[in-house]
Amino acid sequence: METRSIMIVGVGGQGSLLASRIIGNVLLSQGYDVKVSEVHGMSQRGGSVVTYVKYGEKVYSPIVEKGEADIVISFELLEAARCLPYLKKGGKLITSTQQIDPMPVITGAAEYPADLVKKLSEADVELTAVDALSLAEEAGTAKASNVVLMGVLAAKTDFPEEIWQTALEKCVPAKFLELNKKAFELGKKA
Question: Domain total for the chain?
Fold first, then answer.
């Protein structure tokens, strides 16, 4: 099997590490060699965060180069646009429609780009844009938007449902498990 690549992008505090653990757990359970990078960028709350996941028969490096990612999962709309060059032509872009103002927008030095979903839909990729924040709030907490997007990913991959459920059980603390399972289901249905 050829090596495949997934990028998880967002801003600090959105749960990219949990998402990468869930994905890594699913892939390992299917017998793949999996490499997950450490978070790159400013991982404190509010800074850009990128996590790479590569899997296949044998993987030597987790780093994803431009034009190489099969899937980009973005927790924030502007981050989806920033990482679009990393996605293969025809690759899958799964993004939350949430907008978090970066520092230049907060200080008034720049404006948040308008019509990003429309612009992303014009790229040569398979775009799925969901209001993950609203779905997470429906599940019980805004903090579960990362798991909502894991549900969206599960709906777009061939891995069995029970593998995803097992990964959630292994990666999510017990006291938050039911809430996150609900967020996951809402994402799958989105």
Answer: 1
